[in-house]
Write a structure and sequence with these properties.
Oligomer: single chain
Radius of gyration: 20 Å
Shape: globular
Distance between the termini: 15 Å
Helix content: over 70%
Length: 344
C-alpha cells in the first residue's frame, strides 16, 4: 500500500538522519582523551537538558498533556538510554579506541531484531528466523575481523612487552564496557518504541524534548558528584588527579563539543529516531541503527587521518551484508502481507 511504502521510506530516512547524528558521539572521547568518561557523559546530557528547556517552553502545550506515568517513563529512558549508555560507551572508546566499540555497538541491529521478533511479534509481525541466522553469523564475523585489525593496531602502537600487555588489558576492558552499552541500548529503543507506538497521536518532537528535560536533573546531579570527587577524592577512578574542574584543560573545545553533541546527537538524533520508531516496526527500525555504526566508523578513521585497513573493510562489508540480509525479509503477521506500519 502507498502508506506502507511511504512509511518505510520516510522512516528509513529519519533513521539515517539519527545515525549520522549519533555517530558524532564517538568523536568526543577521541578528541578529549584526558577527560574522564563520567565527565563526558554528565556534561553531554547536562547540555542536552539546557538545550531542551527553551524547546520545552515553545512546546509547553504538548508537554502539559503528558501524564505522571509518561514523565516517569521519560526519566527511565533518559537514565538508561542516555547517561548510563554514554558512560559505558565513552569509557570503552577511551580504553579500546573508537573502531572496536563501534563494531560491538554494531551488533545492536541484530540483537534488537532478535529480541523484538520474540517480544513484539503480535504487534509488529514476525521476521523469519531463517533470515536472521545468516545475518547473525555475518555480524559475528565482521566483529571478529575488526577486532583482529584493532588488536594488531594496538600491538604495533605499544612499546615494551609490559606496555603491550597493559594495552591489551585496557582493550579487553573497553570491549566489556561496550557490551554494557549494548545492553543499555537494546533496552532503550524497545521501550521507547513501546511508548511511541502506544501514543501514536503524540509528537515525536515533544517526546524528544521531554527526555531532554528529564535528563537535566540527573545530569546536573552527576556533574556535581564528579566535581565533588575531584575536590575530596582527587585520585578516584572517576576523576584523574590534577583534573581541572569545571571544564578541564581544554574548556573551549570541551564546551563546543558538549553543546554540539547535545543539540545534534541528543535532541535532533532522538527526534529523528522517534520519527522512525513511530513509522516502522521495531524489528526493522532496530536494524537501521547500522547507520550509526557506519557513520561512527567513518568519523573515527577521519580523526585518525587514515583509511581503514583491508581487514577492517572486510568487517564493515560483513556488518552491512548481515543487516542487509535481515532487511531483505520484512516481518510478517500470520497469514498476511509484510508489515510496515504507517504513523497513525
Amino acid at each position: 500500500m502507498p502508506t506502507h511504502r511511504h512509511a518505510l521510506v520516510t522512516g528509513t530516512l529519519f533513521a539515517l538522519g539519527a545515525g549520522l547524528m549519533w555517530g558524532l558521539v564517538f568523536v568526543a572521547p577521541v578528541m578529549l582523551p584526558e577527560y574522564p568518561a563520567a565527565m563526558l557523559s554528565f556534561s553531554r546530557y547536562f547540555a542536552f537538558g539546557l538545550i531542551a528547556l527553551p524547546l520545552a517552553w515553545l512546546d509547553r502545550a504538548n508537554l502539559a498533556q503528558l501524564t505522571r506515568a509518561d514523565w516517569i517513563e521519560a526519566l527511565k529512558l533518559s537514565t538508561v538510554g542516555n547517561i548510563v549508555y554514554y558512560l559505558f560507551l565513552a569509557a570503552a572508546i577511551q580504553r579500546a579506541g573508537a573502531p572496536l566499540p563501534t563494531m560491538i555497538i554494531g551488533t545492536l541491529p541484530v540483537v534488537i531484531a532478535v529480541i523484538s521478533n520474540r517480544r513484539n511479534h503480535a504487534r509488529d509481525g514476525r521476521l523469519p528466523w531463517a533470515r536472521l541466522a545468516p545475518s547473525l553469523l555475518l555480524i559475528a564475523l565482521g566483529i571478529a575481523a575488526v577486532n583482529q585489525a584493532e588488536l594488531a593496531h594496538h600491538a604495533a602502537a605499544a612499546g615494551a612487552t609490559a606496555d603491550r600487555g597493559a594495552d591489551v588489558g585496557a582493550y579487553a576492558l573497553g570491549a566489556l564496557l561496550a557490551v554494557g552499552a549494548v545492553v543499555c541500548w537494546t533496552w532503550y529503543p524497545i521501550r521507547n518504541a513501546d511508548w511511541l507506538r502506544a501514543h501514536a497521536s503524540r509528537s515525536p518532537r515533544t517526546w524528544a524534548t521531554a527526555q531532554g528535560v528529564a535528563t537535566l536533573p540527573l545530569a546536573a546531579l552527576g556533574f556535581v558528584i564528579v566535581w565533588a570527587l575531584s575536590v575530596f577524592w582527587p585520585s578516584s577512578a572517576a576523576v584523574p588527579a590534577g583534573f581541572e574542574m569545571p571544564f578541564g584543560p581544554q574548556p573551549v573545545l570541551f564546551l563546543a563539543l558538549m553543546f554540539s553533541i547535545g543539540l545534534f546527537a541528543s535532541w535532533l538524533g532522538t527526534l529523528c529516531w522517534n520519527e522512525a520508531s513511530q513509522r516502522l516496526p521495531t524489528t526493522i527500525s532496530g536494524q537501521l541503527i547500522v547507520f550509526e555504526t557506519l557513520a561512527a566508523l567513518a568519523y573515527a578513521f577521519m580523526l585518525r587521518g587514515q583509511w581503514p585497513g583491508w581487514l577492517t573493510f572486510i568487517g564493515i562489508a560483513l556488518l552491512v551484508g548481515g543487516v542487509a540480509w535481515a532487511l531483505n525479509a520484512p516481518p510478517q503477521r500470520a497469514g498476511s502481507a509484510p508489515v510496515v506500519d504507517a504513523p497513525h
